[in-house]
Amino acid sequence: MTGKSNTSEKREDIRIPIRVVRGAVIFLCFLIVLMVGSFLHYRQTAQSTAIADTTALEIMQQKNDAQAKEIEELARTTTSLQADLQRLNSLDAEIRRIVNNEDSTTPSRSGLVRPSANFTGQGGPQITANVSEINKLAMELQSEVKIREQSLAGLKQDVLVRQARLAATPSIWPVSGDVTSRFGSRNSPWGGGDDDWHPGIDIANNVGTPIFATADGEVVQSGMSGGYGNLVQINHGNGISTLYGHNYQIIVSVGQIVKKGQVISYMGSTGNSTGPHSHYEVRVNGTAVNPESFLVLK
Ligand SMILES: [Zn+2]
C-alpha cells in the first residue's frame, strides 16, 4: 500500500500541468522569434554598415580621382607656362641680339633657357605628376620669371640709351643741294693753286634754303664767327658737335635745345664764301671729322 502510494506519488510528481507545457511552448516560440528577429536585425545592420562603408570608399575614391585630375591639369598648365616662358626667353635673346647687333652665335647675357627633365611638353596624354614635382617646377618658373623681368628691364634701358644715342648722332644731311666741296684736302677755292684742308662739306643751293639740325642737341653758338660767317654750333653730347656756316639767317639762340630735323637757319653766303652754300662740319672731341662717315641718308 505504501509502495503503491509511493508509485502513485511519483507519477503525480512527474506530471506536468498542461498550462506549464503551453507556457513553455509559448516561451520557446517567443525565444525563437526573438532569436530570428535578432539575427535578422543583426544581418540588416551588418549590411547597412557594409553599404555605408562601400559608399564612403566610393566617395573617397571619387575625391582621389578628382584630385588626381586636378594635379594632372596643374602639371599640364605649369608645363605649358614653362613652354611660354621658354619662348619669351628666346624672344628676349633675339631682341637683345638685334639691339646690340650681336652675332647670333654669341651667347646672350639674358640668362639660360633650361629645359625641364621632368615634364615632356604640353598636350601629352600621360603626365607623371606629383605635387612636389609641380611645386619644384613652379618655383623654378618663379625664379626664371624674375630673371626675365630683370633682363627685360635692362633691355629697355639699352633701347632707351641706344635711342638717345641715335637721336644725338648727326646721321642726316643738314640741307638739300649739291655737294661742291668734300672733306679733306682740296685746291683752295681762293685760287693760286694752294692746297687747302677743308674740315667739312659744302652744300650749295639757293639763298634761304632751310638748314636742319642733324641731331638732337643744344645750341652753343649762334652768330658771326670769322670766316664761317653766320655760324650755328650744336653740342650733341658724347664729345660730338656740328657746325653750320655762312647762314643768311639764324633762327635759334645759344642755350636752345633742338631736335634732329628742326630748322635752325637759312642758307646764305656770309663769311669767306664764293656763293650761297652751307658749310657743314662734324667735330668729335674738338677735331673735325668727315661728316660723310655719319651720314646714312641722301
Ligand atoms: Zn666749307
Rg result: 52 Å
Low-confidence residue ranges: 1-5, 104-117
- Proportion of beta-strand residues: 15-25%
Share of helical residues: 40-55%
Q: What molecules are bound to this protein?
A: zinc ion
Strand elements, count: 13
Secondary-structure element pattern, one letter each:
HHHEEEEEEEEEEEEE
End-to-end Cα distance = 165 Å
Give the helix tally: 3
Shape: rod-shaped
| Main sheet attributes: strand count, strand direction, barrel closure | 8 strands, antiparallel
What is the averaged pLDDT score?
84
Q: Would you tell me the structural class of the helices and strands?
A: alpha+beta
Structural overview:
By secondary structure, this protein is α+β, with helices and mostly antiparallel strands. 45% of the residues lie in helices and 21% in strands. The chain is built from 3 helices and 13 strands; from the N terminus they run αααβββββββββββββ. Strands 1, 4, 6, 7, 8, 10, 12 and 13 form an 8-stranded antiparallel sheet that branches. Strands 5-11-9 form a 3-stranded antiparallel sheet, with no helix packed on it. The protein has a two-stranded antiparallel ribbon with strand order 2-3. The longest helix has 83 residues, at 18-100. It is rod-shaped, with a radius of gyration of 52 Å. The termini are far apart. The relative contact order is 0.09. The protein binds zinc ion (ZN). Zinc ion binds at residues 181, 198, 200, 202, 279.
